[in-house]
Amino acid sequence: MLALAAAAAGPVIAVLMLATLNQRFDDALVATAGMLTSIGTTTLYSLSLTQEANAAFYQAIVIRHSFFVCGGFLALAAGARLSLYLDRIRRFPFTLLVVALLLTLVTMTFGETVNGARLWLRAGPFQFQPSEIARLFLVGFVAIYLYDRRHLVVAPWRVAALNLPPAPYLAPLVGAILAAVAFLTLQNDLGMAALVVLGAYASVAAVVNSRWALGLAGATLVVMAIASFAVSPRVRERVAAWLEPWYDPAGRGFQFVQSEYAMASGGIVGEAATNAPARVPEVHTDFILVAVATEWGWAGAAAVLTLVGIVVCRCLIAALRAADGFRSVLALGISALLGIQVLLICGGTLRILPLTGVTLPLLSYGGTSMIATLFALGVVAGIGAAAAARSADTL
Questions:
Q1: What is the DSSP letter of 304?
Q2: What is the pTM of this model?
Q3: Furthest-apart CA pair in the chain: how many Å?
Q4: Which of 46, 50, 176, 180 is deepest in the core (most CB within 10 A)?
């Protein structure tokens, strides 16, 4: 009960802390994030009541998750505070890049392998996923790089009478992102690699006017995806499980088969008495939407996705209202990461896309992901609050 109380108190404490910084914080953003974490905690608690043999596992999960939620909302307040110092941080773009690359390199060298991927670093009794932190540093680097070179990347690269894409000015950015993706791929963290690449592409697309550049970058992403299928057995296995789960229902297709049974048992309004979600491997992380759909039905799952959409839209509104271009691109990058992550994991859960292994933000179990996501939302909330206060002062 203490853990559940901590999860419930987290959003309240965050709101009180935000009120001391600025009265114009986006209440809808913070409240919707609190609703999503509450739904996630409640869903995990329902899993802990299962009659399956793994009930004790889920009981431990819900306790840890509740404290992660509380810590995440404290991180949200810290992110809002940090947003006051973005002009100082903007002086050190390559420091952010180096830290991100070091986090992935250290994980690749000293990390622990779980389910075939080297994702975790352990420090005594604690373990965390450095790639969740590294992606935020990369978002900061991309935002600073694009803003500082906005006049170069917006204008075409002229060679004689030809207007060419601004490739020379984007090359360092592309090289940095590809280096980070290479490290993540070597760790078998394929979902995070896809998220970083697509998030960077979204940020560049928001700034660059050249259709040639965007088309070339998009074609490059397609080639990279095909190449990953050709050279990575892990990618081929996931694609095979995605296309034909019933070919090996007790092996590589087991997760998809069990998830489809579980979602079907939920119907439109849910079936709280069923134990079906607890039989789905990784239902507390990758497949949390299955547990939601079983517990609350397809109507509940649609409501959850609507709430996530509201969070993304509020982040985009903060980006549009930001005081300057740097803050706008930063908030946009965070919005893109959040939205793309939701599309990837929901597409994988519903078997529209291959499973990437990322979490569903604000709902899935995962301490590093929860804290990093709420910290990023705090930064966006701070950007939006500063813009709202500035608009009020000019009236």
A1: H
A2: 0.91
A3: 73
A4: 180
User: Is the sign of the CA dihedral 113, 118, 119, 121 positive or negative?
Assistant: positive
| Closest alpha carbon to 196 in 283, 110, 103 | 103
Q: Measured between alpha carbons, how far is residue 12 from residues 7, 68, 212, 253, 366 in Å?
A: 10, 15, 48, 42, 21
For residue 144, give both structure tokens. 């600073």
The SS3 of residue 65 is helix
Is the torsion defined by CA of 352, 358, 361, 363 positive or negative?
A: positive
Task: Please write the tens of the pLDDT for every residue from 236-266.
Answer: 787 887 878 888 777 777 888 888 888 888 7
Going by pLDDT thresholds of 50, 70 and 90, the confidence category of residue 287 is: confident
Angle at 142 between CA 99 and CA 30, to 5 degrees: 90
User: For 47-50, which contacts have Cβ atoms below 8 Å and span 24 or more sequence positions?
Assistant: 47/277, 47/278, 47/283, 47/284, 47/291, 50/275, 50/277, 50/278
* Burial classification of residue 54, based on how many CB atoms lie within 10 Å of its CB (0-12 exposed, 13-18 middle, 19 or more buried): middle
Q: Phi and psi of 351, rounded to 5°?
A: 65, 35
CA-to-CA distance for 118 and 192, rounded, in angstroms? 12
Give first-to-last CA distance, the chain, whole Å. Answer: 48
Residues 144, 93 contacting (CB under 8 angstroms):
yes
Average pLDDT over residues 376-390: 86
Closest alpha carbon to 67 in 27, 35, 37, 112:
37
pLDDT class of 155 with cuts at 50, 70, 90: low
Name the residue type at position 381.
A
Tell me the C-alpha distance between 118 and 184, whole Å: 9
Rounded CA separation 215/213 (Å): 5
Residue pair 355/364 in contact by the 8 Å Cβ criterion? no
Q: Model confidence at 330, in pLDDT bands (50, 70, 90)?
A: very high
How far is residue 327's CA from residue 80's CA, in Å, rounded to a whole number? 13
- The b-or-e profile of 12-41 (16+ CB within 10 A means b, else e) is eebbebbeebbebbbeebbebbbbbbbbbb
CA distances from 264 to 283, 346, 377 (A): 15, 16, 33
- Per-residue tokens: 279: 């039989």
